[in-house]
Specification:
The complex is a heterodimer of chains A (456) and B (171). Chain A is mainly alpha-helical. Chain A has one domain (18-451): Up-down Bundle (Formate dehydrogenase/DMSO reductase fold), CATH 1.20.1630.10. Chain A is built from 18 helices and no strands. Chain A has helices spanning 2-8, 19-31, 36-62, 77-88, 90-101, 111-131, 159-192, 197-205, 213-246, 258-284, 293-324, 327-338, 342-354, 362-366, 368-395, 410-433, 439-444, 448-451. Chain A is globular. With 171 residues, chain B is α+β, with helices and mostly antiparallel strands. In chain B, helix 1 (12-24) runs antiparallel to helix 5 (148-162) and helix 3 runs antiparallel to helix 4. Chain B has helices at residues 12-24, 41-45, 52-78, 91-117, 148-162, and strands at residues 3-9, 29-33, 138-142, 165-170. Chain B has two domains: 3-35 and 132-170, BMC (bacterial microcompartment) domain (Alpha-Beta Plaits, 2-Layer Sandwich); 52-117, no CATH class. Chain B is 51% helix and 13% strand. In chain B, strands 2-3-1-4 form a four-stranded antiparallel beta sheet. The chains are: A mainly alpha (456), B alpha+beta (171). Chains A and B meet through helix 2, helix 7, helix 9 and helix 17 of A and helix 1, strand 2, helix 2, helix 3 and helix 4 of B.
Chain lengths: 456, 171
């Protein structure tokens, strides 16, 4: 039955390609000059990045007072952006590790770009807590090392320190995982670009990979073990991020549902960003044969599933708040629904729960433009989710005398825009310099008749 | 200087068939080079299961031990600070850092061991047949045949039906 269903499905890679064609088509954009379309995207990205750099330099010179924070709202745009970017970073590992363990072969076309996206998103995320420190040049004090300040050690009981370890490990392991998967493709590029300076540079980083069966034999085990390590890691990272809030006593934050709720939300937002980027890359880089409707269909189904999980978490939070009988907790949720940030809550529910339900319909899933719009909505909605949770709670805490409103300043908005600039600049450079599709992995999932021999 | 025989194939099944034929003819297979991992090739070549899992486990344990010892020593001995009345040794609160250190050590240790085992390092100029094995070719490198009569038969077989190229190289 399962075999019959599988045989009716369209092939993963369209266009009846053989391995040689895959190499030629994926390497082609790297071997010729940048297209006008690439420059049209790259110049605005660098401009946005410059705005962000200017905002951060101004912040460093002047101080945290240039942000709209006040006595009650000590975390706002910065931490919202931090959680937003970390969340986006989760899809890469979901696709590269979790779907690998589930033997989902469709991941091969999107894993390289999704992992790159993870690394860049985590870089953007790491930026925000660092610039929020006031004295960011002392950032290294986070590292527990013997020092002459006492010795003064970090507080190992603090979720903020757990965060440092979680994000640091996640970034490191993501880069390693990405690089391990990249090695065979770097060797392919090295062999194609022999004699060119870029070929020599790539050759240095390809570590002398030669495709020997013994190396592949061990490579497969290394990849499997890294996937096995990265799977609990990805769950731990956003669980730890959620404890930044859940361990605090703040009404609206102090709940045990936070870790699974945040992990589901992170994967949801990450998948939406993967979809946004892949739909653009597919069109701009002519990758229609590699990222087919089957891939888009699979991602949209995952989005529907995670959207329902996120919706369930929203509902559970409200139910628990009222069922607990805790006055402050109930108030926090009344405030979320009807308070000053009601519009943010409305955007978050509409974008994260209501609109993604359209993806239940096959017709909508096949319309790539509509899917693209939905993915944009989810990106917006998930940013508002974090904003509503963080700012909504801090604006209205236990004592009405400490209540205060928060409005972001231009500097904060410019920094946020700058993080998008950093993300897209890195992503566009990646598209120019490295193969956006994992060639070796795609070759392994081509139809048996095209690559020779039935697969066992 | 030894002579090696380099056979190129267009399809993975031809490579696998040639590996089996070489084994039957007692012609030593030195190495096979492929553009992607070919399932079943490891068994055909008789490669032993890799021991890298053990290295990963040992590094993971090392990460756990280091993390627990560091946190315990810091919070109970070197700089005990009363934070919210929590006990000096707050083991449950040490779990996240311990877990992250385990993953970090296991992952980095595993990859470092693998790179060393496969002699992959920056600037490495390890021998490769350079017959398109990183693109779409499957390459088999054979050593000196043990029995010359079997080898002649095998070479004919290889040339006639399987290999697209067959060369002798001095290296």
């Amino acid at each position: 039955m399962a075999t019959a269903t599988m045989s009716r499905m369209p092939p993963l890679i369209a266009g009846n390609k053989n391995p040689g064609q895959v190499t030629a088509e994926i390497c082609r954009p790297l071997e010729r000059g940048a297209t006008g379309l690439w420059w049209m995207a790259f110049i605005p990205a660098v401009a946005l990045l410059s705005i962000g750099v200017a905002a951060v330099v101004y912040l460093f010179i002047t101080g945290i007072g240039v942000w709209g924070l006040n006595r009650s709202v000590g975390w706002a745009f910065d931490i919202t952006n931090f959680v937003f970017w970390v969340g986006i970073g989760h899809a890469g590992t979901l696709i590269s590790a979790i779907l690998f363990l589930f033997r989902q072969k469709w991941r091969t076309s999107v894993n390289r770009a999704a992992e790159a996206m993870t690394i860049f998103a985590v870089m953007c995320a790491g930026l925000f807590p660092v610039i929020h420190m006031g004295r960011p040049w002392l950032f290294y004090w986070f590292i527990p090392y013997p020092n002459e300040r006492g010795p003064l050690w970090v507080n190992f009981r603090s979720p903020l320190l757990w965060d440092f370890f979680a994000i640091g490990t996640y970034l490191t392991i993501s880069i390693v995982f990405w690089y391990v998967g990249l090695l065979p493709d770097l060797a392919t590029l090295r062999d194609r670009m022999r004699g060119r300076w870029y070929g020599r540079l790539i050759g240095f980083f390809s570590l002398g990979w030669n495709g020997a069966a013994r190396t592949w034999h061990r490579y497969e085990l290394v990849y499997l073990l890294l996937a096995g390590l990265a799977t609990p890691l990805v769950v731990s990272v956003h669980s730890v991020v959620s404890t930044d809030f859940a361990v605090a006593q703040m009404p609206g934050w102090h709940t045990t549902i936070f870790p699974p709720y945040f992990v589901a939300g992170a994967i949801f937002s990450g998948l939406a960003m993967v979809l946004t980027l892949m739909l653009i890359a597919r069109k701009a880089m002519h990758l229609q044969d590699y990222i087919t409707h089957r891939h888009i269909n699979a991602i949209t189904k995952l989005i529907v599933a995670t959207s329902c999980l996120v919706g369930l978490a929203y509902a559970t939070e409200f139910f628990t708040a009222f069922y607990s009988g805790d006055v402050r907790e109930s108030f926090a949720f009344q405030n979320r629904l009807l308070g000053p940030l009601w519009w943010g809550f409305a955007i978050m529910v509409a974008c994260n729960v209501v609109i993604p339900q359209l993806l239940w319909f096959g017709g909508i899933r096949r319309s790539l433009f509509v899917v693209f719009l939905i993915s944009l909505c989810i990106n917006v909605g998930m940013w508002f989710e974090r904003f509503v949770i963080i700012v909504g709670a801090l604006e209205r805490d236990f004592l009405p005398s400490t209540w205060s409103d928060y409005t972001p300043t231009t500097v904060e908005i410019a920094t946020f825009a700058g993080s998008f600039g950093l993300f897209f600049t890195c992503f566009l450079l990646f598209c120019r310099l490295l193969p956006v599709i994992a060639m070796a992995e795609v070759k392994a999932v081509l139809q048996p008749s095209l690559k020779g021999g039935e697969r066992s | 200087m030894t002579t090696v025989y380099v056979a190129g194939f267009e399809r993975e099944e031809d490579l696998r068939a040639a590996v089996k034929a070489a084994k039957n003819s007692r012609w030593p297979v030195l190495e096979a080079y492929t553009p992607y991992p070919v399932h079943g090739l490891s068994e055909d070549l008789g490669l032993h299961p890799s021991q890298l899992g053990k290295a990963c486990f040992v590094f993971g344990i090392l990460g756990v031990v280091l993390a627990v010892v560091l946190q315990y020593w810091v919070t109970t001995t070197n700089w005990p600070l009363n934070i919210g009345g929590q006990p000096w040794n707050s083991l449950p609160a040490f779990l996240p850092v311990t877990f992250e250190m385990m993953v970090l050590f296991a992952g980095l240790g595993l990859v470092a061991t693998w790179l060393m085992r496969c002699r992959l390092y920056p600037g490495s100029r390890s021998w490769s047949p350079r017959r398109g094995e990183t693109d779409d070719r499957f390459v088999l490198v054979l050593g000196q045949p043990v029995a010359v009569t079997d080898a002649a038969e095998f070479r004919g077989h290889l040339r006639d039906s399987l290999a697209t190229t067959l060369e002798e190289l001095e290296c």
